[in-house]
Specification:
By secondary structure, the chain is mostly helical. It has a single domain, classed as Methane Monooxygenase Hydroxylase, Chain G, domain 1. Helix content is 87%, strand content 0%. It has four helices and no strands. The chain is elongated and about 80 Å long.
């Protein structure tokens, strides 16, 4: 296989790998939204299931990332890049495949940002729920102390 064909093959493989990651990150984004709804509506069993699904997705993404590492190293070595960067690849090899790769990586970054925003909201909602529960529990304890049981 010629060097140009090999490079194009590696780039296509990477583009496919990143597309798989993007699909999984989109699933993660949808689950983060469902997680917020579960917290808002006190659906704790559903929340637990969503967290398990997100954990499973994370393990799949970890495997995908590991499988992409050799391809990234091949690209860095072949193109004499300092580090892996879709922008640097696009500059070194301006092609449709490189553009697809760069676009997909950019979309992953966008989705990761959206997930982070929702996760921050979810964390705050959960902390508020826990605080309210603590206050309610403290009130119940105080009110229960004054009661006499027969």
């Amino acid at each position: 296989m010629k060097a140009g064909n090999l490079l194009n093959f590696i780039l296509r493989s990477m583009a496919l790998g990143y597309q798989k990651q993007l699909d999984k990150y989109m699933d993660m984004y949808l689950l983060a939204q469902k997680q917020r709804e579960s917290i808002e509506n006190d659906r704790w069993l559903e929340l637990e299931e969503i967290i398990e699904k997100r954990y499973f997705l994370l393990t799949q993404l970890e495997k995908l990332n590991k499988s992409m590492k050799p391809l990234q190293e091949d690209i860095v070595k072949t193109l004499n890049l300092e580090k892996f960067s879709s922008k640097a690849i696009l500059e070194a090899v301006p092609s449709k495949t490189s553009q697809q790769l760069a676009d997909t990586v950019a979309k992953i970054g966008d989705v990761l940002y959206k997930i982070k925003v929702i996760d921050n909201i979810n964390e705050k909602l959960l902390q508020e729920k826990i605080s309210r529960l603590r206050v309610k529990t403290d009130l119940d304890k105080k009110m229960g102390k004054g009661k006499k049981y027969s």
